[in-house]
Each structure stands twice: as C-alpha cells, then as structure tokens.
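Customer escalation, tier 2.

The customer says the design service returned an amino acid string that "doesn't look like it belongs to this structure." They asked us to rerun it and document both sides in this ticket. The original structure tokens are below, unchanged.
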C-alpha cells in the first residue's frame, strides 16, 4: 500500500541531504494516501522528522569513519518519525539506504553488495544463519580488511522484528553474506517502539555496537549520544510522557556538541 506522511512538514532544514533523506523524498513521491502515524498533526522538520521546537539538524555533525552502512528498509519504515535508522546516515557519511522488495530487489543494492571496494556483513542474530559464516568477535576481521584494502559494509535490516525476519528469509542475496552477530545481554534503550524481546535494540543502537566492534569507539559513543537526543526529543513531543523535558534535551545537545 502506498502511503504518505500525513503530519505537517516544516521547510527543509539547511543541511546536506544524505541517503535516508533522499529515500524519504522518493518514498513520499510514491504515496497515494495519508500515512496515519503517531503525532501526525505535529509540525515537523522534513529532515530529522522531529517537532520544530526540538529539531536537531543544527547539532548534526558527521563523523570521520572507515565503515560503511547499507540500510534495507521495510516499505514505509523510512516515513516513520520513530525510525532510528536515519541517525546512522546523519553521522556516518558512507551510508546507503534502499527500500526492500520481495519480488524486485533494488539493483543498486545488489551492485553495492558486489562492489569490490567493500566487504559486506549482514548484522543479524546468528540463530537465523543459513550456511553463511557467523562472526561473534569482529577483532579477527579487521586485519583481513586492511590486508585486502576493503571497507566493511554493514547491512542492517530496518523494520520491526517481524519485518526484519521476513526480509532476511525472503532475500536470497542476503543469505550468503557473512553474518555479524552480537550476543548482547544489554537491555534495549529504544523506548519509542519496544520490541517483543528484551534484548531487541533500535537500528541506531545496533549500529553503535557495530562501530564499537570495528574499533571506532569515539564514533560509537557519538552515535549513542545522537540516539539519546533523538529519543528524548521524540518522547518530549508525546503529551502523555512525563519524564522527558527541555532541560534534559538541552543537556543532551551539549553532550552532542562537545565531541
């Protein structure tokens, strides 16, 4: 079903467009009916999708990273203000974004996975592995990447848990990729859309773990801080939330600005 975001949208923020911004615009162009999301009547920035009063675009500062990410997004996921995948593109310059299709895979995605400059890794729980290699400790991969002059391309399936599993099972071109799997017992901080599993994380949280595993600790911390600001701003916009505050948002802005 083709849908569009029904809330009011503020003029474009004066910031360079990245892959998720462009995918958002493309997905909007396909829309034929309103997408009824939570907060649909709120006036929002078109880029960060946060309410105008707590727009974060002025605080966005891309990192210098040797990692690349490919977001494979389930249908209207890119339209959701609660989506955290866009935060990865905010900070990691070499980020790509694609809409998932079961019957017509994006040929640009297929080409990216075959690009000799990259070594792709699917980031997904190892229990779902088919016949691909499962990596629980990325330490041994780093010397191989340097020796082969490859950039790691971390592929993230962006949607709810049910959608992510569907994307994996219905995409044969993903099932041969080596799989990076985290045995994390940390509880998810993603208070916006709590998963059915206690350990289920938001997409940006997973990317932070990936950057940490790759050895980019500073970038992992930067993305974690950016994610915390995003969560606080989103919760503040929900009238029933009693814990988020503008004071806390300002504290998080300062934390982001200090890096």
């Amino acid at each position: 079903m083709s849908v569009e975001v029904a809330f009011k949208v503020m003029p474009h923020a004066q910031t360079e467009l990245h892959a998720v911004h462009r995918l958002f615009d493309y997905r909007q162009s396909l829309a034929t009916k309103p997408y009824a999301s939570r907060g649909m009547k709120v006036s929002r920035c078109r880029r960060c999708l946060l309410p105008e009063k707590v727009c974060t675009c002025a605080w966005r500062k891309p990192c210098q990273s040797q990692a690349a990410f490919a977001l494979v997004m389930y249908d209207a996921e890119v339209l959701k203000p609660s989506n955290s995948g866009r935060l990865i593109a905010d900070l990691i310059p070499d980020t790509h974004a694609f809409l998932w299709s079961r019957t017509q895979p994006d040929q640009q995605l297929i080409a990216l996975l075959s690009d000799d400059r990259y070594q792709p890794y699917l980031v997904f729980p190892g229990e779902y592995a088919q016949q691909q290699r499962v990596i629980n400790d990325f330490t041994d991969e780093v010397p191989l990447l340097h020796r082969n002059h490859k950039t790691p391309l971390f592929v993230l399936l962006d949607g709810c848990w049910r959608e992510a599993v569907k994307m994996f099972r219905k995409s044969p071109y993903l099932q041969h990729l080596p799989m990076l799997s985290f045995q994390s017992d940390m509880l998810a901080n993603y208070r916006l859309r709590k998963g059915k599993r206690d350990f289920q994380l938001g997409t940006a949280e997973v990317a932070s773990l990936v950057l940490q595993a790759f050895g980019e600790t500073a970038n992992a911390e930067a993305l974690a801080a950016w994610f915390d600001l995003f969560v606080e701003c989103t919760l503040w916009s929900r009238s029933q939330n009693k814990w988020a505050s503008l004071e806390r948002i300002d504290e998080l802005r300062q934390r982001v600005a200090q890096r």
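Tier 2 assessment: The sequence is consistent with the input. The CA atoms of residues 44 and 51 lie 4 Å apart. The two ends are 42 Å apart (CA to CA). Sent an explanation to the customer and offered a walkthrough call.
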